[in-house]
Design brief:
9 strands; globular; 9 helices; two-stranded antiparallel ribbon; alpha+beta; Arc Repressor Mutant, subunit A; homodimer; Nonspecific Lipid-transfer Protein, Chain A; DNA-binding; disordered C terminus
DNA sequence: CCGGATCCCCAGGGATACTG
DNA sequence: CAGTATCCCTGGGGATCCGG
């Protein structure tokens, strides 16, 4: 990308990560950890292979990522974030928090991935009752599955399935994520197709950040 | 910009503000407040007029800004951020904080503006001694002037000159801002051309955020 | 002088095909 | 699987011009 040529830290940041797709590549590496070319391409539906290749080269040159040769059983190159790349997490988090307001609109052409189901609660939801016993929630949406664990004041999340969850949330992405992030309430989520199974009261301890405590 | 078509809040955010120049326009409106077309163009050296015009239209359509007709003495249209636009401040702040690491390199072709001198301390510097009496620091760099006021645990800053500052910092942008944001120390700043006048010990109460307390 | 609109040119992105 | 090569086309940069 052509430089903005401005002595301003925002402009400087955009000189490095302002190109199309670049921040989303960093997102995938944050969510997936070290990943292969194909993993990245799969987590970035719509990107052209040559463009991903170009961006990875640029990111390596800017020292946001490194390419390592994985040991024999894998025998492929892995892309991983450097310190500098990892340091982008707060910026992506802030941007994602701002972007939540646009998640209500439904677009049939939207793609969806399990890791996007996982990061939203981890970044945007807080534990309202740190002293209550830990709980596990299974999230399922459009063939994507994630597990949310809340307890001791922390909320963590990862892709996959839980053996014996306290609560199961199943429904279209904007119903599940909309409810968790607080852009819609339970009633609206139900109307959008949310189905629950288990201890529904676990939801009350989850508090979307940026919202007042006590919202359902 | 073409949509990423991903149901992810980061991708959704970038659908809206991912275009070239867009975030810098928001930056200028945050720093300047309601501004005229010409003020914006002046705060965005390098932008083409048609592009600024296009972006403003897109931003208005996305409801990040509104265009208002100023009352008679001014009689021009003012662009101002809406609630949605103002809500981008934390994201710009996080991005700018990350971008600080690239501010050490000096490039002769870089442009500079007084408002960029002002926002950095306000966003990236904390008051180390909330109980000490307030102090005023005059910043001067490349014909840009700003006043930094610290006291009661708060750091604020604005463009312009102070009548009777406790301390004056004068030098090239990367010396003044580098020192304040903690990317270089006092000795390095002096080597880069920093000149001081007044109570130099005021600097010790300023703490660059993201650094350990007690760094000079 | 302010607030753009118009035109031309070129770099950068998108889609597809192909290769080690 | 992990990219590279190619072609096309959109969107940005720069200059100029125009109405209020």
């Amino acid at each position: 990308m052509r430089s903005y040529d401005q002595y301003c830290s925002i402009a400087r940041a955009l000189d490095v990560v302002g190109d199309r797709w670049t921040l989303l590549i960093v997102r995938e590496l944050l969510l997936q950890g070290p990943a292969r070319f194909t993993d990245l391409k799969n987590g970035l539906p719509g990107i052209a292979a040559n463009l991903l290749s170009t961006r990875l080269r640029e990111l390596e040159q800017a020292e946001l990522i490194s390419r390592d040769d994985a040991p024999p059983p894998v025998a492929t190159t892995l892309y991983r974030l450097t310190e500098t790349g990892l340091a982008l997490e707060p910026a992506l988090q802030a941007l994602g928090l701002w972007g939540l307001r646009f998640m209500t609109s439904v677009r049939p052409e939207d793609t969806f991935r399990a890791q996007w189901l996982a990061y939203a609660p981890e970044w945007f939801v807080a534990d309202n009752a740190p002293d209550a016993p830990p709980a596990t929630i299974q999230l399922s949406s459009a063939d994507a599955h994630a597990v949310l664990e809340v307890g001791a004041g922390r909320v963590s999340s990862h892709t996959g399935a839980a053996p014996d969850p306290d609560l199961v949330l199943d429904g279209p992405p904007h119903a599940v994520l909309g409810l968790l992030t607080g852009v819609i309430d339970f009633e609206q989520a139900t109307q959008l197709g949310l189905a629950t199974r288990g201890r529904r009261e676990v939801l009350t301890r989850l508090r979307p950040i940026g919202r007042a405590a006590g919202s359902p």
